[in-house]
Amino acid sequence: MTSTNRSAIISKLYKVLKKHYKPIEPPADRPALEHLIYGSLLENSRHEAADEAFAKLKELYFDWNEIRVTTVTELAEGMGGIPDAAASAQRVKRALQSIFEGGYSFDIESLKKQNLGKAEKDLEKVNGSTPFVRAYVTQNALGGHSIPVSKGAIDVLHAVAILSDAEADKGQVPGLERAIPKNKGVEFGSLLQQLAADLVASPGSSKVKAILSEIDPDFKDRLAARQARLEAQAAADAAAAKEARQKARVEARAAAAAAEAEAKAKAQSKSAKGAAAKRPAAPESAKPKGTEKEALKSKLPTPIKKHNGDSRVAAKGLAKKKPR
């Protein structure tokens, strides 16, 4: 797709979105950290659900540190309207943990004083911050021109032929910031997020289908094909993960059995050595002494020697017995 065609479809998308949604802007005095937390809740969610979840976090917990040390399960319980509350809670918790480890505080206002490029690189170091969250903070806290695009928005842009399959898989939207001027970035981002959240919440919604059809009547085939492919990929990933878990369990059991056998063999070897050390030695009386050895030797017959040139042999050392 040429950049001209892409820009034309983006402009058409913008016009259609303005017909069906009203832009929502975040509070101007919201600190950078709160923009980050709110963006973590807003991704793939409707604004009203993110507003409610954000308000509950500030109401139910004493401070950000208490949220940091709270379990994901407990945090998710207060996010009833969020489609994937566990994922949102995980993003919030990981981000707070990462920021705390970086400076033992939860103040990231210093990002506003940095060069935009440096601030964006520092945001990338925050664990749990997705491209959507970082773009949201850049746009609303740092004043940069970066339009946040969620997974639902990627599906929308692919359905209306703004993105190819490869671009959608990578989550890239080439030319978006060029097609939408900076002074319209917050408005466009808000409108796109509302349609994306509606698509995530209810893919079969007649309202969503009507809006997409206004932009591109052929959206159905692309949307259905992408959803089928994503479902197949998710199933394959789940099967691969299950197989990996089973393999890991088998390897763990084999390693445990080998370790147990080795420990048993060592124990048996140690026991055998101990038994040998405890076995009584032979008594001294049973061992032949030096004098006894000599006595034994004296009782042995002396070997008979042959004389050179004489066939007769004499028994050396033997005396004739005198008659009595």
Taking pLDDT < 50 over at least 5 consecutive residues as the criterion, the unreliable ranges are 309-320
Query: What is the residue-averaged pLDDT?
Result: 87
Enumerate how many helices there are, as a single number: 15
CATH architecture verdict of the largest domain: Orthogonal Bundle
Element pattern in H and E: HHHHHHHHHHHHHHH
Please summarize the sheet with the most strands: none
| CATH superfamily caption of the largest domain | Hypothetical protein, domain 2
What fraction, in percent, of the residue positions are helical?
Answer: 55-70%
Number of domains: 2
Notes on the protein architecture:
- The chain has 324 residues and is mainly α.
- The protein has two domains: 3-216, Endonuclease III, domain 1; 218-263.
- The protein contains 15 helices and no strands.
- Helix 2 packs across helix 8 (131-140).
- The longest helix is centred in the last third of the chain and has 60 residues, at 219-278.
